[in-house]
Amino acid sequence: MSSPEPEIVQALQEEIIFGRLQPGTRLVEDALLARFGASRHYVRQALDRLERLGLAVGERNKGFTVRSLSPVEVEQIYEVRELVQRQAALRIPLPAAPALIDALNAINAELAGYMETRDLRGVHDANDRFHLRLFGACGNDYLLATVQHYMRLSLPVRAKTLADADSLRVSHGQHQLMIEMLQGRDNWVLAQLCVDHLQPSKNEYFIRARLRDTHAA
């Protein structure tokens, strides 16, 4: 019998990414046992995996909660994302190989299809595959791993824009511009576009945080 851990991780990951489980929500083991019909061992493995993905936080004698990022943490995470994504973009040989252009066009077309059907899981997967395929062209596996790590850390921040139709249309259009830039010779323009691409989700998060603070006051 296969382990139920991947199913538990995927289900909870989707609920966290798309806001059905809000930051700070407790992930109660007994409730998860009843929901998934899995052993405590597999539930704990799944929660540990969510913590490694940066989506949950475990505290001794308190259990796990959905990770909540402070504005300072978000600023710091995005500062590093901007640095590593800029550096990765600067290292991509231009003009890019036709195989890379074809692959990115295919993924972006797939993303458009998921946007049309409102398939949020598909949107999330295609969006991440686009960026990992793009930055994978930098030729530095360690730099790519760092990009991927900070993409994961920022999931709670960018989840809102991944579920918003207008934000997605802007993001999809920027992907197409990146593909056009890859066919030119100016890495600095490409790198700046990759940094600009990060700003809407970060800015939207700060707006929501200010609104929460206003209501709390």
**What is the beta-strand fraction?**
under 5%
Q: What does the average pLDDT come to? A: 90
Computed over alpha carbons, the radius of gyration is 19 Å
Strand element count: 3
Summing up helix and strand content along with how strands pair, one would put the structural category as mainly alpha
H/E element sequence: HEHHEEHHHHHHHH
Q: First CA to last CA: what distance?
A: 52 Å
Question: Mind explaining what this structure looks like?
Answer:
The protein is mainly α and 217 residues long. Helices cover 73% and strands 5% of the residues. The protein contains eleven helices and three strands. The protein has helices spanning 5-17, 29-36, 40-52, 71-90, 98-117, 120-136, 141-153, 155-162, 165-182, 187-196, 199-216, and strands at 26-27, 56-59, 63-66. It has a three-stranded antiparallel beta sheet with strand order 1-3-2. α4 runs antiparallel to α11 (199-216). The radius of gyration is 19 Å and the shape is globular. The chain starts with a helix and ends with a helix. The model has no long low-confidence stretch (mean pLDDT 90).
Quick recap of the structure?
With 217 residues, this protein is mainly alpha-helical.
List the helices and strands and how they pair.
Blueprint: H1 5-17, E1 26-27, H2 29-36, H3 40-52, E2 56-59, E3 63-66, H4 71-90, H5 98-117, H6 120-136, H7 141-153, H8 155-162, H9 165-182, H10 187-196, H11 199-216
Antiparallel strand pairs: 1-3, 2-3
Key descriptive features of the protein:
5% strand; 3-stranded antiparallel β-sheet; 3 strands
